[in-house]
Design brief:
19 strands; seven-stranded mixed β-sheet; 3 domains; 39% helix; binds flavin-adenine dinucleotide; alpha/beta
Length: 462
Amino acid sequence: MSAAIRRSVTVVGAGLAGPLIAVLLARRGVSVVLLERRGDPRADRADGGRSINLALSARGIRALERAGVFADVAPLLLPMRGRMLHAPSGESTLQSYGQRPEEVNFSIGRGALNRVLLGAAERAGVLLRFNQRCLGLDPRTHALSCVDERTGEPSVLDGETLIAADGAGSAVRSSLVEAGVCAVRIEPLGHDYKEMTLPAGPAGRHVLDPGALHIWPRGGFMLIALPNPGGTFTLTLFLPRVGPVSFAALSEEQALHRFFAEQFPDLESYHEALCADYRRNPQGQLATVHARGWHLGGRALLLGDAAHAIVPFHGQGMNAAFEDCSRLDEMLERGGDWAALFEQFELDRRPDTEAIARMALENYEEMRERVRDVRFTRLQQLAFELERRFPQRFIPRYSMVTFHPQIPYREALRRGELQAAILEQLDRERLADGGIDYALVAALVQERLPALEERDLDSRTG
Ligand SMILES: Cc1cc2nc3c(=O)[nH]c(=O)nc-3n(C[C@H](O)[C@H](O)[C@H](O)COP(=O)(O)OP(=O)(O)OC[C@H]3O[C@@H](n4cnc5c(N)ncnc54)[C@H](O)[C@@H]3O)c2cc1C
């Protein structure tokens, strides 16, 4: 690392990306202060005892390995090999994510992951300061205003360089927008979410298969479940905010019970517990943040959700935020000054985060609607067949995004579109002629899909 960047850095936000970038910087000899508006979650349970989980996959794992923290995270992981679809009839079907044993997603508790990352940051020499809410950055003086959440005492920090990992509602991003440095467009989804807990069965056993991500796809909305250690599942209901079937339509107790009974009859024994959770827990909003101008010269950089929050349907928001951290660290290794580095970071990274933002939106329709369609299963099986026959050239899009961290998101999107056209064509021809001529397919694949490099083919999750 060049002398120009061996200085002190303030990181705002000790969620997921904040502590990870803090560890990576500290390992390079940078002196790091990490500010967080909440209390220390290792001391007080800020989540009020709720268990909220996330899907971690290869991109996130690679970044955790780079920071030397994956060994501490690994014991927290529960592998999920595919999607278990629950029909209204109660019937369930597994659709696997990939076709190799290592092609799995992992469920991990957000709180547990956060605590591991904070411990790693502390051990790496990062100075952690909790209950410090950042109010904004003065773009002229570069002073960072904060307030102590417990005492109300204001403070001003003159950190040399600031990295803002303060999430989708970033206060630092608002300062950059006010200063005309950053342009932001927030695209609301119009569908909100609510988390509930499916209790453990007798002797702490999971009442559904813990090796899958469960989906109750219902067309205009869906319920999903990810396993937790200890036998519970975290359920998340994604539903339009308003309309005939919506959160607004479930405000009456009777309507809520009727909704659960009609839509999720297989969860009947848990309806009371789920309805109680539904009433107790907050209704979260979802949006895509499209921002340009992630940095203020070499003084400040937006990272993770602060720069590019996405909807959660590809399970990639945290993975992309972690990938930001490893990309920035790779660039630091090559040297340069902060200004050049931050500029290059946005140039390199934004096309990828825009691509995953789009794929995440597309995946909502896939999860709540298309997975139920026989055509979807037919095309997925065909995609696996093409991957087996042409492993150098054809990798299903979901697999590129989730299991192949060497393939940039933008490339997964681009190749995914070419592949979708091939799949559509083959499916049409198969339906018309009753079969597929794989000699012709080989020519088609060779013509349209350049061979991937050996390093891109290594599918792995840990
Ligand atoms: C319902 C849901 C499900 C999801 N599921 C997945 C999934 O399965 N897989 C996946 O990869 N991603 C998932 N995501 C996305 C993932 O949660 C985010 O992409 C990830 O948390 C981004 O990390 P971050 O560090 O950038 O922001 P955050 O994790 O939001 O952290 C921001 C931190 O900054 C702090 N902060 C905020 N404002 C201030 C301030 N003014 N001053 C000081 N501190 C501040 C916050 O308290 C917080 O600790 C999901 C998101 C949602 C909403």
